[in-house]
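Z., the sequence and structure:
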Amino acid sequence: MTKKSLFIATIITALFLIGMVNQNKSILLMAVPFLLYLGVGIFFTPEEIKITCVREIDSMRNAPNKPITVKVLLENQGETIPRIRICEDILPKMRVLEGSVDYDFSIAGKSEIEIFYTFQAPRGQYSWQEMKVLASDPFGLLEKTIRIPNAIKTLVLPESGNIKKFTLHLHNTLHTPGPNLSRLPGSGVDFWGVREYQPGDSLRLVDWRRTARNPHHFYSKEYEREEMGDVGIILDGRATINKIDENHDLFEYSIQAAATLAKYFLSIGNRVSLLTLSSKLVQVFPGYGKKQLGRILDQLAACKPAEEISADILKYLPIRLFPSHSMIILVSPLSPNDLESIKRFRAEGYQVLVVSPDPVHYMSKYHAKDHATPFALRVTRIERTLLFRKLRQIGAEVLNWEVDKPLDRKIHTVNKQRV
């Protein structure tokens, strides 16, 4: 029973009691319309409800803030239902643009109805497990709640910018054709050296000038071999270092940087893997191509900052999850305790690039201004500069990224300066 039917029943009971106590027929007659109202509702309440409900989403993977259309198909396989209501759950951060998520209508027997609504949402994973349907009489007095299992989800992918091609020398490469110079002779376009001609060498490789100076010998040119590299991206989702205050954090910028870097290194032909230190420790194993980019973006879309992760998780991270001697890109605002962890990466033979969204610069824009703020920011900036100096001393490359500037421009600056 609903609150409405309980209210009607209470009025009827009260009128009967008052009429009986006072022996007043007029008061008793006042209860008759309410009895008829309740009786009609009971008479038209559907006894057996046979409905199926299916929810469909036009796209399972969506760009940020792209309108997403949802279609709900309701099919009634039984008798006429005078009143039916579909209640869709509004997930956090969803904003309905068109249509409604709360529909109230009647449906005839052996018929179906389609309902559409459009919503917009930022990066994230949005999922539903069931549909809630309320069936009742025409007055909404007696309701039956039906929960229909209908698991479905959609992803809103993170923003990923474009990076113009730049040279980042990987110390170790795979013996597979790719974009990186390997410091070994082979097929390529960069000149490597000259050696004596060997049977089977192409005539295009013969160094005719040197051969002319040494008529009794032939010489061939060699070029530096270009090979594929292994790149592992670690996304640091610790809330303790990403969160600035209740309304501002750097985690979204870290995700954007990880997506941009993964897109760039995959587009030029490298093998890329991902490890997220977020609410779940998730690894995407090494791979290449558009499918690998899709896997990485799917994981980044579902990432959430982790409140319960230990601040020292990097210290105990099993770095053998990444191929030996590969390049590790750590996307993290960093804390002073991370120095020992990065030392361990270097000791294991990994090449390390730290992409660090600058919390000091970000904090200076949103923190309240008082007489102590400039001194606190200056001290924090000095500590961060000293940490970067120590990282460079152990052989790690560091990119201090002010998040209000494009990552593309900053990473090219680092490439020129060889930070």
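The chain has eleven helices and 17 strands. Residues 3-43 form one domain.

Let me know what you think.
H.
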